[in-house]
Amino acid sequence: MTRNAPKENSVEKFENWLAVSPLASAVKVFIAIVLSMAIADFVSKGTINFASWQTWVIAGLASAVPVVINWLNPKDTRYGGGSK
Full-prediction pTM beyond 0.90? Predict the structure, then answer.
């Protein structure tokens, strides 16, 4: 009698995606920078003001560029064409 391997639940699938996906890496960097910008605004102004949300998003997008470049690089073995 053979036993089937246990199926991954949705949380495990999400965790695996976060661990290996270049898009997940870019999203993690984006979120970290946006959160950092919001905290910096809070520290300097004493309140989180969403009027400067465009600055947060631009900083987040710019910070995710290196991850995208690595993904597009075929010689990068983490994400590119050289990955397994």
Answer: no
